[in-house]
């Protein structure tokens, strides 16, 4: 077994940039707007949710987590449903 760390070896599929490659590179702002949109990542949500801390009963939390990915969104939906059914009076 070799004692050479594989992570320290060059990756042939992702070589280090040369000065020539860097000279040819474009800034994101210099690309067409349609391509910029694709490269910028996930679009910003129309409604930005606020981060908070909430204490929930273990059984409630377990039930929502058991539903898989998106369980926090389902808690949000359940709370919105409760609010719709219990208007402020």
Low-confidence stretches: none
Q: How many independent structural domains?
A: 1
What is the H/E string?
Answer: HHHH
Q: What oligomerization state is this entry in?
A: single chain
Distance between the termini: 73 Å
Number of strands: 0
The portion of residues forming beta strands comes to under 5%
In this structure, how is the largest beta sheet organized? none
Could you report the average pLDDT, rounded to the nearest whole number? 89
Radius of gyration: 24 Å
Comma- or semicolon-separated keywords:
elongated; 89 residues; 0% strand; mainly alpha
Secondary structure topology:
Blueprint: H1 19-24, H2 33-39, H3 58-65, H4 71-85
Summary, kept brief:
With 89 residues, the chain is mostly helical. Helix content is 40%, strand content 0%.
3D architecture notes:
The chain is elongated, with a radius of gyration of 24 Å. The protein starts with 18 loop residues before the first helix and ends with a helix. With 89 residues, it is mainly alpha-helical. The relative contact order is 0.05. It has one domain (15-85). Helix content is 40%, strand content 0%. The chain has four helices and no strands.
